[in-house]
Design goal:
By secondary structure, the chain is of the alpha+beta class. It is built from 14 helices and ten strands.
């Protein structure tokens, strides 16, 4: 049942005060707020109702209340979209991202550091976010003595390199032409699909939807099979800003801080949480006991996937105390995620244009 106007007003005031100060909020403090306009007695009754319904809680009878995960969820869902970055701050942040435009292919550490620096919490970047990698491009580089450097780039930006023996009759020009044909034929397909297609080629069937062989690439198909064979799931994850958690008064006790820092080290579970909660391109907020990873460290998480060509390839996020300022962090994460998507799409368009003019 949705909260009434009076209940929502009191809950909002409790959450605002709790997020700012991190201490229980009394009915007297709420009643004194200009936005509430209720007597202290009425506020006490409303807070008691909110506690009974699971939106507020208190540690002992004489203390004020603090919001539960459910109370924080209602507050965030009610106010998300109302907070905006100032124009100049947004412009500055986009500029800081685009300076590193070319670095994104090889490195995501700088993204995590940027997130941490801007939000004063821990920044997290991971790619790929989906479980299986898709092919972006293939290249073959002759090294001499019959050796070839094979390079496969996947849509998550990862690069795998292997050295092979090529047929002695293949020239550098033929290798380049073969790589271009393979890249065009298999672009965007999952690696497992490509491997299955190549197995069909060995048995005489064509890998794609069009009949006939791949013109100019037949001799390189064995190299392609060897290049992709056993290609591991390679997940890049960068976490920055552990010092921000250490400086937070929410983790003033050694055990609490140790638990929070242990969460940052548990990258496998962070990845699992992101894969579970991130659906589509909507920014997600995960609070406290809503996930195993945030419950363990009494944390909150704000995360968003970024894409290239409409395909999700990674995610950016913030991990901080459960009491972190979600309204300020949400627009930052959204801007960084959408800017990375725009940047990667433009890089893909530039590469396609270069290929057409080559």
């Amino acid at each position: 049942m949705p909260l009434g106007r009076r209940q929502l007003g009191v809950l909002n005031e409790v959450v605002w005060r709790y997020l700012r100060r991190g201490v229980p909020v009394s009915s007297t403090q709420v009643a004194s707020a200009p936005a509430v306009s209720l007597s202290a007695a009425t506020v006490r009754n409303v807070m008691a109702q909110l506690e009974e319904e699971g939106f507020l809680e208190r540690s002992h009878r004489s203390a004020g209340r603090v919001p539960t995960d459910r109370g924080l969820r209602v507050f965030i869902d009610t106010h998300r979209g109302t907070s905006r970055l100032r124009r100049q701050r947004a412009t500055d942040l986009v500029s800081r991202i685009t300076v590193h435009r070319r670095d994104l292919v090889e490195d995501v550490e700088w993204v995590a550091r940027l997130i941490s620096d801007v939000t004063h919490e821990a920044g997290v970047v991971v790619r790929p976010i989906d479980r299986e990698r898709c092919l972006e491009a293939v290249s073959f580089v002759p090294l001499g003595d019959g050796r070839v450097l094979g390079v496969v780039v996947t849509t998550d930006g990862a690069v795998e390199k292997r050295v092979f023996r090529a047929p002695a009759t293949m020239t550098g020009e033929e290798l380049t032409r073969s790589a271009n044909v393979l890249s065009r034929e298999f672009h965007g397909q999952r690696v497992s699909q490509i491997e299955a297609a190549l197995r069909r080629v060995s048995s005489g069937a064509h890998p794609g939807t069009r009949p006939g062989p791949l013109p100019g690439a037949e001799a390189s198909l064995p190299l392609m099979r060897e290049l992709l064979s056993g290609l591991p799931e390679k997940v890049e994850m960068a976490v920055a800003g552990a010092g921000n958690l250490a400086a937070s008064r929410d983790f003033s006790k050694g055990r609490e801080l140790g638990t929070a820092l242990a969460v940052l080290e548990d990258r496998k579970r962070i990845l699992e949480a992101l894969r579970r909660f991130l659906v589509g391109d909507r920014t997600r907020v995960i609070i406290g006991r809503e996930s195993e990873i945030t419950a363990q460290g009494n944390l909150g998480m704000v995360a968003m996937a970024f894409s290239q060509g409409g395909r999700r390839i990674g995610a950016v996020g913030v991990l901080g105390p459960r009491r972190m300022d979600y309204m300020k962090i949400l627009p930052v994460v959204e801007l960084i995620g959408s800017t990375l998507t725009e940047m990667l799409d433009q890089m893909g368009a530039d590469e396609n244009a270069g290929t057409k003019h080559a």
